[in-house]
Amino acid sequence: MTERIIPIAEARYPTRAPVVPDNAPPVSGLLSDQRGRRLHDLRLSVTDRCNFRCTYCMPKSVFDTDYQFLPQSSLLSFEELTRIARLFVGHGVEKIRLTGGEPLLRRGIENLIEMLAQLRTPSGVPVDLTLTTNATLLARKAKSLRAAGLERVTVSLDAVDDAVFRKMNDVDFPVSDVLGGIDAATAAGLTPIKVNMVVRRGVNDSEILPMARHFRGSGHILRFIEFMDVGASNGWRMDEVVPSGDVIRRIGEAFPLEPIDPNYSGEVAERWRYVDGAGEVGVISSVTRPFCAECTRARVSTEGRLYTCLFATEGHDLRALLRGTYSDEQISAAIAHLWNLRDDRYSEIRSDETAGLRRIEMSYIGG
Ligand code: SAM
Ligand code: SF4
Ligand code: SF4
């Protein structure tokens, strides 16, 4: 019998202490990395725990009862999260997305939302505050989230067929409860709601048309996401990726579609609308049409490590600075230094060589 080694949660991924430059240039709100990309979006992961075991994200074979999640003391507090967010906003971030794990499992998340909703960009505009959720707790929380200042939600839903959905979440959760969560979010005004479906060939690609049919005319924007090789535990294979081009062709044969312009430069989803006026769908082609050249996202993990790419192998320990004796100016300078050095473009150079790298899990960094 082979012995199973369970790494201590904190030591699971390599991390580096950020450099704090002595002479920090003044914060300009206009950072640029090695490829001329601005810093525009921040994803904050608020927990590494989840009540689902989606087979492509937290397969039960890895995320079982022996799996060590981070202890409470490791997580950034709401004050620490807000401080980090404020410093990023100073550097040009206009959009903050809360994620996880399942962000609604974080106790008191409404308090964090209230704190983040107070942030203003250097030109005095509130940040665009959103959250991605599996919607299991949305029916219960939609009103309080909205009251706290959340503007919109993105709901992950991989099928409308109950049996297919239960198989994908692998905890036997019924699709009707997710749909109830979407209705509650709509009633609370967390709109327009985006519904994200990860498509895996042979598992749920039979649901592409039923999902399109279900959400046509609903006012919600359904987006199809190519199954990605994030992490090291989901058994990713290229032949399980359904290229977005195929998704659009399949839908277009049933309900004619036409392309529409992006909402803003750097938007990762390609947008299409139904010719008959029944709304919009999107595709996110991370595998077949990488968008690294436009990638303006920073990600901060649950225990405060900055990742400059979803496929990064190493994080930068901002928590060490937050819990040390560093001033806002010093931490801000460290963030600027890291962004200036950023040169990531994993999806553009994906190959057999990169496939062997020890990547972080999606449930840890939050997509
Ligand atoms: N638990 C929340 C949820 O599911 O919405 C937030 C965290 S989840 C990690 C964020 C998003 O990542 C979800 O929409 C999920 O479908 C997506 N995701 C996870 N693993 C993925 C993979 N291997 N390929 C593509 N998307 C993935
Ligand atoms: Fe949980 Fe979201 Fe991952 Fe599914 S995709 S296991 S809901 S974190
Ligand atoms: Fe951005 Fe990295 Fe994804 Fe490229 S691979 S789009 S750099 S997160």
Question: Can you put this structure into words, describing what you see?
Answer:
It is a single chain. The protein is α/β, with parallel strands linked by helices and 367 residues long. It has one domain (37-154, 177-365): Aldolase class I (TIM Barrel), CATH 3.20.20. The protein is built from 12 helices and 13 strands. It has helices at 78-90, 109-116, 138-148, 162-169, 175-188, 208-215, 244-254, 318-322, 328-341, 346-349, 352-355, 362-365; strands at 15-16, 41-45, 95-99, 128-133, 152-156, 194-199, 221-226, 257-260, 270-274, 280-284, 297-300, 305-307, 315-317. It has a 13-stranded mixed beta sheet. Helix 1 (78-90) packs parallel to helix 2 (109-116). It is globular and about 60 Å long. Residues 1-6 have low confidence and may be disordered. One iron/sulfur cluster (SF4) is lined by residues 50, 52-54, 57-58, 100-102, 134, 156, 363.
Short key terms for the protein model shown above:
13 strands; globular; 28% helix; TIM Barrel; binds iron/sulfur cluster; 13-stranded mixed beta sheet; disordered N terminus; alpha/beta; binds S-adenosylmethionine; 367 residues
In short:
The protein is an alpha/beta fold and 367 residues long. It has twelve helices and 13 strands.
Spell out the CATH superfamily. Aldolase class I
Percent helix range: 25-40%
- Structural domain count: 1
Mean pLDDT: 91
How is the biggest beta sheet arranged?
13 strands, mixed
The shape, in one word, is globular
Quote the distance from N terminus to C terminus.
Answer: 35 Å
Kindly identify the CATH topology: TIM Barrel
Please name the CATH architecture. Answer: Alpha-Beta Barrel
Number of helical stretches of at least 4 residues: 12
Radius of gyration: 20 Å
**Which strand order does the major sheet show?**
1-13-12-11-2-3-4-5-6-7-10-9-8
CATH level 1 name: Alpha Beta
